[in-house]
Design brief:
heterodimer, A: 324 residues, MetI-like fold, two-stranded antiparallel sheet, 12 helices, B: mainly alpha, 74% helix
Amino acid sequence: MTTMTRPLNAARRKNFWLRKGNKIAPYLYVSPFFIIFGAFGLFPLLFSLYLSFHYWEPAAGLASMEWVGVENYVFALEDEWFQSSIYNTFIIALKSGIPQHAVALPLAYFIHTSFTRMRNTVIGIYFVPYITSTVAISLVFTTLFSRDYGMINQVLTSLGNFTIADIKVLAWLFPTENVDWSRPAYTKDMISFVVFWRFVGWNTVLYLSALQTIPKDLYEAATIDGANRYQQFWHITLPMLKPMAFFAVTLTIIGNLQLFEEPFIITGGTGGIEQAGKTAAMHMYITAFVESDFGTASAISWILFMIIACLTWLNSKLLGGRND
Amino acid sequence: MKSMGKDKLIAYITVFIGAIIMLAPFYFMFIFSSHSNTGILSVPPPITFGDYLVTNFNTLLDFLPYFWHNLALSLFIAIVVTALNLLFCSLAGYAFSMFEFRFKNALFVMIMGTMLIPPFLGMIPTAMVMSQLGWMNDPKALIVPAACGAMGIFMMRQFISSSIPKELVEAARMDGCREFKIYYRIIVPLILPAFGTLGLITFIGTWNNFMGPLVVMNDMKMFTVPLALRALQGTGQVPWGAVSIGASIAVLPLLFLFVIASRRLIDGLTSGAVKG
């Protein structure tokens, strides 16, 4: 468009937009995403890949980068602390992930079949941890988990010391003395519990939404055929929930392997005694922002990404089956 | 049938105990914010409100002199990010649901694919990009990258394609309505419910964001609330009462939003998961 005689031009411009507007508009409408993602998503990713093959001294400026091939990857993989952070990540992922699903699935089934009036309240209560600030709630949990004065130890030891006729009947299940949760043997349990607490409601809601899609006539037919409720649960509900279980487990794997905030806050950013609570994502953060080794840290982030991608793929092979 | 009743009772009790476990941390957070350190660190810990609320808040302000600023900054960032997401995501969602254009499907798949990128992967390079741009300690560093989320585009596309007939847009176009006018005079009024849901989700996510500010904000004045709370940790004798009141302030707006719109929030947060 040129800017010559104004009235004519304005008319032509209007005409142009009316004719071509709906051809150009969609590209304009989707462009913000691509501009933002290009600058702050894609470019940093490529840069991080580039960085992972370089040695770099941040203080000396960008020009001081030096190509080192896969050295950063080798260094990261051989590093004992990296290996232990991967181990920690997996232990915490399992200790928080398995209970999440073991509780969420039956809980969802029970809410689905037995709650009517209180239903939304119950769902809301279990879901509320998911939307609260991880930092705030992790700080609260560090108080609750403190050794001598923490509420959690108070409850556990009072259960452990619960006596009937001079016998501590629950001592096999609960501790009788205060547990020092900051000791390496317990750090992961503490973190896992907080993660479990945050995500159990989320998974419950996922299972609930799947339960609502199971047609009622399936149960009616089964009742006519004489199947009791347990048989119905095993032979109708569980198989029908399989696609959602696959999906929810995938989300848990992806989420749990990149745990950062809960362990970071609970261990005060250090990883705890003997770094027993340091996850891989934390190791990456510390390598970059505490030790200023950005090359190795980038390599760590890509190794972790590969691990997550492989496990997600493996999970789809194992659980995904022919349903999808 | 009799054994069924007993099972059910046990199940109800379990659900009830579970609900207490879910809510207890919030309860103690509020209780502790009204007790002194010696009160909190005693056996048994307090279970009712004390009278140290004001003292604790003053302690919080002693440790975090910029707390009001932190609070205002958090609110500002969350509101701006939310507004930008509503605009950009609804525009993109509208394009993907109501227009036919070349590469439409490929572009949509690309956007959805970006959701698979884990956030930690971008942490280091984002920090470096921000420092190169001179955006360290600048709210821009948290606003611009978050201005248009893939999840929001997906939600908007779903909502628009299921609730607005294409004929409506075509009729407006026939009548000579300009393209952008169609968006803000016809589409926007019809998608206000989706704005509500996406707005809540974005606001909460931004308010809670910790990893983002952690790498770009290192001046105490420019901390967001989660960062400010975290800073209380490294202060030797941790002032637990002040920590609790800070945590309460960070969590209260969320609890409030959740109470007034829990159904919509839960549906919104899981809709992407369930339909996608």
